[in-house]
Amino acid sequence: MLSRVADQLYWFSRYLRRSENTARLVGVGSLLQLDLPRSVRFAWRPMIATVGAEELFLDVHPDADDADVLDFLLLDARNPSSLRASVDSAREVLRGIRDALPQEVWEAVNDLHLYIDADGERVLTRRYRLDFITRITDGCLKVSGLLAANVSRDIGFQFLRLGTAIEQADMTTRIIDAGASGLVKPRNEEDREAYQNMQWMAVLRALAAYQMYRRHVRQRVSAAHALRFLLHNAEFPRSVQFCLTRVQRILPAMPPRPAVERALTRATGLVRQADPALLAAGDPARFMDEAQIYLGRLHAAIAEGYFMG
C-alpha cells in the first residue's frame, strides 16, 4: 500500500473518532448542567485547556463567555480540533481515498458535514444541545459501523483500526481531564465530594460507559473507581488500556517498526503503573497531560515509521 493512502486512512479514522469524542466532551458539561441545582456555579472554560487550545482561544476570544467556549469547541473553523474542523478534515481526507472505502461511508460523512452547516448554531442554546450531540455521536457511530461491516480486512483496514485506537485513547484521557478540571464550583467544602462524584458520573455517561461501569465495578461512582475503569479495564473499548492493547494486537499484521513498539511499550507502562486511588486524591489532570504526551510520541513514531519516505 502507498504510504500516502495509509496516512490518509489513518487520519480519516482519527478525525472521525475526534469528531465523536469532541461532541462527547461537550456532553460532559451538558449532562452536568442538567443534574446540578441552578445555584451551583458551572464553568465551561476549563474545557479549553483540556483540548490544549487555550492560547488560540484567548487570541480569538479575549473577553469570552460560555457561548464563546461552546462555539470554539464545536463550530469555530479557526480551531483545528473543533467538531466542525474535524468533520471537515475527515471529509476532505475521504475525498482523496473514496475508491478505498464504500460509497456509503462518503454519504454518511457528508450528511454530518451538511447537518453541522445547517443546524450547528442550535448547539449554542441549552435546549437543543443534547439533541445535537446525540445526532453527531450517532452519525459517527454509523460511519464506524459501516467501516467495521463493509471494509476488507487488509492492510488498509489495519491503518483504520490503528488511527481509531490512538485517537480514542487520547480523547478518553481528555474527557477524563474535563471531569477533573473544576467544571463545578461547590457552594461549600462539605458539598465538594458529592459534586465531584456527579462530575465522574457525567464523564462515564458521556463516554457511554455508565452501564458497563455498573456491570464491571458494582460500586457507587467515585473518582478512584471511575479512573480505574476508564484507564485499566481490559474489556471496555473506550478504556485507555483496551485501546493500547488493540494497538499491540494490530502491529504484528503490519511491517515491523521497532521505534513504534518502543513508544507503545512506554505508553502502556505509564498507564498500567498509574494508581487510580492516588490520582483521585491528587491531580488526575496532570497524569492525563502526561499520558497525552506519551500518546503523542507513539503517534510520531507511527508517522515516521509508516508515512514518511
UniProtKB/TrEMBL annotation:
Leader sequence range is none
Q: Which residues form the DUF403 domain?
A: 1-307
Q: What superkingdom does the record give?
A: Bacteria
* Name used for this protein in its record: DUF403 domain-containing protein
Organism per entry: Pseudoxanthomonas suwonensis
